[in-house]
Amino acid sequence: MGGRVSFQAAAAFAALLTQGVAHAQNRTVVLPVIDVSTSRLGAGATIAGTSSSVITAQDIRQSPAQSLPDILEAQAGIQLQHVSAGTNGARDTVDLRGFGASAPSNVLVLVNGRRFNDFDLQGFDFSSIPLNAIERIEITRGNSGAVLYGDGAVGGVINIITKSGVHQKPSLRIEGGFGSFRDREGRMSASGSNGPWSGAFDAIGIRTDGYRENGYLRQKGLNGDIRYTTDEGSVYFNVLADDQKLGLPGGRTVDETTGENQLVTDRTGAATPNDYANKQGQNFTLGVTRMLAPGMELIVDGSLRLKQQQAELFFGGSPYNGVDTNMTTVSFTPRLKVDGNIGGMPLTVLTGIDYYHTAYSSDRSQDFNSSPYHVYDLKQDTAALYANGTLSVRSDTDITLGARYQQDKISASDTYDPSAPGAYGSEGIPLDRSEGQWAGQLGAEHRFNDMFAVFGHIAHAFRVPNADERIGLASPVNFDLRTQTSNEIEGGARLHLGRFKLQSSVYDMELHDEIFYSAATFSNVNLDPTRHWGVETTASVAVSDTVSLHGNVTYTRATFSEGAYAGNDIPLISRWTANAGMTWDIWRKWLVYDLMLHYAGDRRFDNDSANVQPLIPAHTVVDMRIGGRIPVADHVKSAFWSFTVQNVFNDMYYDYGIASTTTIGRFNAYPQPGRTFMFRAGFEIE
What is the distance between the alpha carbons of residues 315 and 429, in angstroms, rounded to a whole number? Predict the structure, then answer.
């Protein structure tokens, strides 16, 4: 029933979109020049020829989505895997351009233009940053970000820009909410400036029991930013910290050979009622910007990032595996931005040096009261030099050329104690290696007029294996994995016709030594060549001053090119995804209605590289939000409220599951919530 109703909603949206285009075409509008060349990554970097999009703070506030991954999923080319219990985006996997289980290592996440991917498989935990701290999110798809930011930017770059209080009046925002599964949330934001000084602080607390048994989440997050800003430059200090306690309920078993189906008999139950994973993270960034001369800006900053993780797994009520991991990352990233011209042609160049040192230590034991049987120690040093330039060869044509050389040194060892309780296997094979890699890109964009532009690029990127991939589950551990490389070509067009906007692009990416987990060997391996290609199309239209529509459709393919699985699909990637949304300002912002429809096609289970298991079914989810902002008094800027219903038609879906390697028709699925509710209210003071 839910699927039929959702299909009708999609058809209605398409009809409205068609009417909106016709309405726009009947208008006579003088259009501004479309800025198709700028992605504000880092210190004003420009990357011509890329497919990009921006999510604003207003988009985030009005979205029916309740977590950052769900907000991102509404963008073209992004797919999600809810590996945990689907609460606040904790441990969700955000996938750009089809990488499945390895997506966290192939999508590079930045916070204020700085790398935030950690040296482990978890990558960036999107639940760790308060939504109310975000000013905007910039998405650059494909390989191009590798020049500016290094390894891991294969599927694309997600740059989260947090708010600052520069040139802002003092303000305070307080918000509370409650919803399904005893979900309780509190959020607070404060910002403002006084002369050259400014500050912004955002905090969030979330407590929920979750949809499933042992699916609880306890999350606290804090973002703080202090700046001293003058015409000559600025000094800034940023702190981002989070504390997370998460229950791990495990999967629900389905076995078609025996008739077992826990998705029906015990959907909300837990296979692992005692398992948990806790995490604490702290990041400190100190930086200085200085105008050395007109058009020449120096940015010097560095950061210290700490992360501690504890996870304990149980069997029969007793612990059998404890993991205690500590990670420290120190970075120093000076860069120089120059705006000038060559022969009268405007030129922007960003060049710099990146240095990162990461120390990773992980104790593996039977439980936290026993001595560890494996102690893994890995250290990685990365030093890189890069330059990226964008030249406006004509007023309507931009060309970008960039290159990076990066040297990586990795050392890894395993201290093994065979006498420790629960000891298994043997000591890992040490590794001490250094290698150099390069990234490059050439992009161009041409505007035929104020309405139509074309763009394209070719790029080369790479990805260095992370610590968890090197360790794997096999014994003895062989830390040695080859670096993954990628070559990409992309072309597309943008149309801006009155109130109607359209962007569409086609890409083709060939990868060598793609890093992939093999269930047969319990370790990560380098694959034979693979290929990723697809089409991404986004459209929006302002039907009137109060009603706007937006949507996208994406076709994604990722296949094995050679080897035993040649021609097969890489698991966990839907070929077709689509989103459609509507915003209706019913009455002067006092009453606003938002609707979002998301469709994800069927996909292969994790572990099913042979493509012999049944598919994870397609699903369609409709979310809606109604809310408003009401002026109150002179000092109270406004009061606001919202009521959100997610999964309106109660679709019983899941988007992640892992298949048996021995029994066709047997798998574990991770079910997501049905219909849920959330009410929020708060006020702003200036």
Answer: 29
| C-alpha angle 370-519-467 in degrees, rounded to nearest 5 | 55
Check: CB of residue 181 under 8 Å from CB of residue 211: yes
Q: How many domains does the chain have?
A: 1
Contacts of 634 by beta carbon, 8 Å cutoff, 6+ apart: none
Size of the chain in residues? 686
Q: What is the enclosing helix (H) or strand (E) of 24?
A: helix 2-25
The secondary structure of residue 395, as a DSSP letter, is T
Angstrom distance (rounded) from CA 50 to CA 509:
14
Which residues span the domain enclosing 15? 2-685
**Which DSSP letter does residue 473 get?**
S
* Cα→Cα distances 483→95, 165, 261, Å: 20, 41, 41
- Reading the block at residue 181, the tokens are 């599964």
From residue 621, give the alpha-carbon distance in Å to each of 338, 574, 674, 676: 47, 15, 9, 12
Q: Classify residue 34 by burial, with Cβ atoms within 10 Å: 0-12, 13-18, 19+.
A: middle
Token reading at 420: 């420790």
Q: By the 8 A CB rule, do 169 and 143 touch?
A: no
* Alpha-carbon separation of residue 307 from 109, 159, 162, 284, 397 (angstroms): 16, 20, 20, 12, 45
CATH number for position 657: 2.40.170.20
pTM: 0.90
**pLDDT over threshold 70, residue 43:** no
How many angstroms separate the Cα of 587 from the Cα of each of 409, 632, 639, 671, 682? 60, 16, 15, 38, 19
Q: pLDDT tens digit string along 350-386? A: 999 999 999 999 999 999 999 999 999 999 999 999 9
Whether the predicted pLDDT of 28 surpasses 90: no
Confidence of residue 632 (pLDDT cuts 50, 70, 90): confident
End-to-end CA distance of the chain: 48
The three-point CA angle 19-71-236 to 5° equals 125
**Both tokens of residue 641?**
């409220």
List, in sequence order, the alpha helices (H) in 245-306.
Answer: 262-265
Closest among 227, 250, 251 to 237, alpha carbons compared: 227
What is the spatial distance between Cα 412 and Cα 599, in angstroms, rounded to a whole number? 43
